[in-house]
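Our consortium's second objective concerns turning raw sequence data into structural hypotheses that experimental partners can test. To show how far this objective has progressed, the report includes one record in full. It was chosen at random from the queue rather than selected for favorable results. The single chain below, 159 residues long, was entered without modification.
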Amino acid sequence: MDDLPALLDEARARLDGVPRVRLGLGREARRLARVFGGRPVVEPVASAWHLGVLLVGDEKLWATGDIVRAAEEVRRGYTAESQRVRASIRAMAFRGGFAEGEVCHIDWRELDVAAIARGGSADPLSWDAGRLLVAWSPAGFRTPLAAYLDERIRLAGGS
């Protein structure tokens, strides 16, 4: 049976020195700022190594969500509402402390490592015959987590 905490500890050791990305969380404008026209922001709350569908932190594990690049707000005419929404989120990340062009992970989900290690599952991780598998695509293609982490770590520049 795979040992999830051991796999994550090994991954962290191999990723030492590899740059991380930051995870953002939306926050409402502070009360005083609202009085003076403050707007919501996406603030950095954690950092992690981005390994495909997983974000590996120092002590936590997350499933990836959406990814944007922070950008200063500019007026543009968008034909699609989805473009307006993404531009708004990019500007919120910039106002929240992400640098221009910096990758910002949003809509991520924290995974309960202890529960998964005890045999539970949480998308994208699941068990099959004592092997921990990761669903690496929306179509549900699953591969052993150990091999997936090995490949992703090498792609990220880890040892």
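The partners drew two points from this record. Residues 81-96 form the longest helix (16 residues). Residues 4-156 form one domain. Both points have been shared with the crystallography group to help prioritize constructs.
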